[in-house]
Amino acid sequence: MSIATTEHSVSRALLIAIRTPCVSQQEVDESLSELGRLVNTLGFSVIGAKTQRQRSTKQLSVLGSGKLEELATLTGESSASTDVSPEDEAQIELDQDELSQLLATSDIKGQANVVVFDCELSPNQLRNVEAALGVEVYDRTRVIIEIFSKHARTRTAKLQVEIARLNYLTPRLRDENSGDRERQKGRSISETVFEINRRRIRNQIAELRRELTKLQREMEGRSSGRVEQLTVALVGYTNAGKSSLMRALTDTEVLVEDKLFATLDTTVRTLQPPTQPRILISDTVGFIQKLPHDLVASFHSTLEEAKNADLLLYVVDASDENFTSQLAIVDHVLGQLNIDLDNKVLLLNKVDCLTEDQQLTLLELYPDALQISAHDKADVAFVHQEIQNLLEKKMCAACFDIPYTASGVMGEIHSKMQVIEEEYHEKGIRITLKASPIALERLHKMLQLTTF
Ligand SMILES: Nc1nc2c(ncn2[C@@H]2O[C@H](COP(=O)(O)OP(=O)(O)OP(=O)(O)O)[C@@H](O)[C@H]2O)c(=O)[nH]1
Ligand SMILES: [Mg+2]
Known about the structure:
With 452 residues, the chain is α/β, with parallel strands linked by helices. The protein folds into 4 domains: 12-147, GTPase HflX, N-terminal domain (Rossmann fold), CATH 3.40.50.11060; 152-223; 230-393, P-loop containing nucleotide triphosphate hydrolases (Rossmann fold, 3-Layer(aba) Sandwich), CATH 3.40.50.300; 395-449, Alpha-Beta Plaits. Helix content is 46%, strand content 17%. It has 17 helices and 13 strands. The strands form 3 sheets. The chain has a 6-stranded mixed beta sheet with strand order 6-7-5-8-9-10, sandwiched between helices. The protein has a 4-stranded parallel beta sheet with strand order 2-1-3-4, with helices on both faces. A 3-stranded antiparallel beta sheet has the order 11-13-12. Strand 8 (311-317), helix 13 (323-336) and strand 9 form a beta-alpha-beta unit. Helix 2 (65-74) runs parallel beside helix 4, helix 7 (155-169) runs antiparallel to helix 9 (189-223) and helix 7 packs antiparallel against helix 11 (293-300). It is globular. It starts with 11 loop residues before the first strand and ends with a helix. Mean pLDDT is 78; it is low at 1-8, 57-65 and 77-100. The structure holds guanosine-5'-triphosphate and magnesium ion.
């Protein structure tokens, strides 16, 4: 299978969710509607969505041959093969009654040319389903990986996504000549070519990993040996309005789009109007439920910025009816990254889309949160002030003796920290300053390491 971008303009997608007993219908619906938005972001139109109930509590197994036959009618494939391997068949528990009902009420027969499953399919499952339906089949992971591929801009993001894409692709590579090989029942040229292709991809992944590690080391090298600046990271679910707020707070033209995963690379800008000391704001990749493992791992390094931040602005689209589950997902991912959640302020964004009553209810539920609209100048000014107040509260005072031989560091301290007093002595400058405990600790270490 190739996952290179194909001509998507004519793709009409049928979405399928598999509902296990441990998942509520509401959760399935939320997830399906999000899958619809993901699929739209990819440029497909959604022509319908179906839910298949499954009695087994297994997290996921996909469709038996009966279901495949039925689904084939939805994609217009009349003579679909239902060649399901015994291992897949064994995992499947199918509610035939519900399925028949589902298909009887369907008015989209023959219209879909892509079927998208709201879950991750194993390579075997994907092959079986594709063969049976006679159309291209996507799973949620592939949809997300393709969106990331389309949106990656910097070299680092492109490398991270390409590694994830190839890791996904390798086990799903199809041996086009497998039928002949079966007949030949022995080693053949086709087998060798297939194996060579796989090995080539593995080598390519190793090469990309090396390049990525090198690039990340260079970036770390560039940031070490500098005086720490106060930083604020915008984190949150995809499409919450992080980049819109970044734009408004820093007066810059970062990309804002009504698309999922518009931002993949961390962007860092200075808070405007400027403060003394300067405060940096970073915009990060958004989160989503069921983010493929590989991408979570890839983007850990991108989220380092959030890890080192003095303050997290936790942006939520309060107008989205599913925002509480989105909050839970962001909490979960940040928890996995060991990010300190005590440092966070909750921003309930897009309140311009809510009624006064809804805003009052939110106030009762989240009394400490700030209700804002990133499109409202007064709200942005309020967030600007809150950032300063909160950072001020976190700062502690400390005193350092800086020898004249190292006075070069003074310029950096002045631009990045709050200087309270300077006294000039015979051997150096005694400086009293205010900064976050982390920044003070780092400056202390830096001065110890500096050869005067
Ligand atoms: N009505 C309204 N729309 C908003 C507000 N803030 C952002 N939006 C819109 O929400 C959409 C997504 O905004 P972005 O700022 O790109 O969201 P993001 O969190 O950066 O999204 P990703 O980069 O995909 O993670 C855009 O269409 C914005 O114009 C707001 O306060 N009110
Ligand atoms: Mg963004």
